[in-house]
Amino acid sequence: MISSLTWIRKGIALENPIQNVVDLYESGEYNPLAAPEDSEEQNKENQGLDSTARINADNGEIDEFDMENYDNEPDYPTIFTNSQEDLDMDHVENNLDNDNDEDDLEDELEEIEQLKILPTDNLLVVAKADAEEVSTIEVCVYESSEQNLYVHHDFFVDAYPLCLEWLTNSQLGNLLAVGTFGSPLLDPNSADATNKYSMTHHEQPYTQPYDVNIWDLNVIDSYNYAPVLSLIDPNYKVGSTTADTMSLSWNTNVMNLLASGSSDALVRIWDLHSSSSASGNLVSRLTHHKDKVQCVKWHPVESSILLTASYDKTIAICDSRASMSSAVIKFAKNLGDVETLLWDIHNPSSFYASFESGVVHCYDIRTLSSSSTSAATSPKFTIDAHKSGCTALDVHPTIPNCLLTASVDKSLKIWNTSTHTLVAKSDSDHFSSTVGAIFSAKFCPDSPYFEIAVGGDQNSLLVLDLSSNASIQSAFNYSPPIESSEDNTQQTIRDPFVYVNSGGYGSD
C-alpha cells in the first residue's frame, strides 16, 4: 500500500545524482552534515535561538521557546550541499576504475546518462509497504510533457512509513523527512540488538530507532545509503518504545524548523541546524493534547503559528513562541477523528479539516479565541464530501477556491469552495480498481496541467490529469496549454491516467 506521497518541484534535484557516495564522503567533496566553522556563540546566533529556548537538559522540560526574532531569519551556515558545481558528476566519472576496459566504461557512462534528472522533471516520492512487511521509499520521475512516470530509485526504511515531508532551500538541498511506526529501544550490546538488522536485506549493525529520519534524495547509492540526520527525543530510555510519528510539517518561513505529531500525544519541534545541546535537535515539546496527534501544519505565512489535531477531539492553533495553544476547536463526536488539516494558501486566515465521517469543515482563525473550548465550534462552512473517511485534502497551487478531497471510499473529488459545490469526481472503475482506498492525493505544485498524484491500498501510484475536464474548465475559468501534433493538424489529447504499477515502469 501507499501510505503517503509528496511532489518535488522541477529544478531542485541534482541533474546527475550521486552514486558512489562513500568515495565522495572520504574525499571530503560531499558532507551534508559538515559542522559549521562558527564558534558556539555564533552558532546560537545563526540558529535564531537563544540558549534559554532549549530544553533543560536536567529535567527535560521547556524553559522557553523564543521565536520573536524568527521573522528576521539570518543566513544559516551551509550544512547540506546542493551545488551542482560542487557535486558535478565529473567527479564520479574520474573515479571510475582505471582498469575497466572501454566497454565497461561506456556502460558506466550510459548508466549515468540514464539516471539524469532534467530540470523539466518533477519527482514523486512514495512511501510503500507490502504484505511481506518490506517498507520502501520510491523516488519516481514524472515527465509531464510526455506523461511518463517511472521509478528512478528506491531505498529501504527500518519501520512502516506513516508520513513524508519534503525539505528544501539553498542550505538544505533536496531532503526528505520520514516518520514511521515506533520501535523498541534496545541495549546496543544485547543479544536482541545483535540479531536485529537496521535495514531490510542489509546485514548492518543494530541502530536505535528514531522519531524522524532525514534522507538525502540526491543520493542513489542504495547499499551504503543511510539517513543524513536522525532525530530522537532524549527522554526515551532503553527498554521503552519510540512513539509513532503520525504527521510532519516543515516550516517554510523558518526553514530549519520541523514539527512532528506523535502517538504519545506530544507535538515536537526540531531544529535541523543544531545538535550541540544535551537535547540534540529537539527544541520544544508541546503538551496541549491528551491523545494521539494525527496532524500538524505550520502556517504558510505566520512563522510561529502551528495547527495541530488530535484523537482527543480537538484542533489547536498554537503560537510556538508561547509553547501553548492560543485557541482550541472542539467538534462533534459523530464526526470521528480528524484525518488531515490544510491551510488555504490563497486565503491564509482559513484552514480545512477533514474527518473520519467524510465531512470537511472550513474554519476562519480570525473568529476563534482561547475561550472557544466549552462547546463544538461552528465552522465557516461544511462540505459533505465523502461517505467514509476523507484522508486527503489539497488546494490547487494557482487556482483559488479549488479544493481536492479524496477518501478511503475510493473516490476523488474537486470542489469550488466559493459556492461549496462539487465540480468533478472520479467515477471510473479503472481509477478505483487501480488505486483502491485512497490515503494520499496532491496537486502537482508547478505544472500548467491539472495533474494530481494519487496513492492508496492497491500499491499503485497514479497521476490523474483532469486538464480536459469541461466542468473544471468552466468552474475555474481554466484553460490548459494547447499542444498540437507534429504536423499541427490537430490538438494532442492527453491521457487522463498515467501510472506505475508496483515494480513497473512507463505510462498507460
From TrEMBL:
<dbReference type="InterPro" id="IPR019775">
    <property type="entry name" value="WD40_repeat_CS"/>
</dbReference>
<dbReference type="InterPro" id="IPR036322">
    <property type="entry name" value="WD40_repeat_dom_sf"/>
</dbReference>
<keyword id="KW-0853">WD repeat</keyword>
<feature type="repeat" description="WD">
    <location>
        <begin position="238"/>
        <end position="280"/>
    </location>
</feature>
<dbReference type="GO" id="GO:0005634">
    <property type="term" value="C:nucleus"/>
</dbReference>
<protein>
    <submittedName>
        <fullName>Putative WD repeat-containing protein</fullName>
    </submittedName>
</protein>
<feature type="region of interest" description="Disordered">
    <location>
        <begin position="31"/>
        <end position="53"/>
    </location>
</feature>
<dbReference type="InterPro" id="IPR020472">
    <property type="entry name" value="WD40_PAC1"/>
</dbReference>
<dbReference type="Pfam" id="PF00400">
    <property type="entry name" value="WD40"/>
</dbReference>
<dbReference type="InterPro" id="IPR001680">
    <property type="entry name" value="WD40_rpt"/>
</dbReference>
<dbReference type="InterPro" id="IPR044285">
    <property type="entry name" value="PWP1"/>
</dbReference>
<keyword id="KW-0677">Repeat</keyword>
<feature type="repeat" description="WD">
    <location>
        <begin position="383"/>
        <end position="425"/>
    </location>
</feature>
<dbReference type="InterPro" id="IPR015943">
    <property type="entry name" value="WD40/YVTN_repeat-like_dom_sf"/>
</dbReference>
<dbReference type="GO" id="GO:0006364">
    <property type="term" value="P:rRNA processing"/>
</dbReference>
<keyword id="KW-0597">Phosphoprotein</keyword>
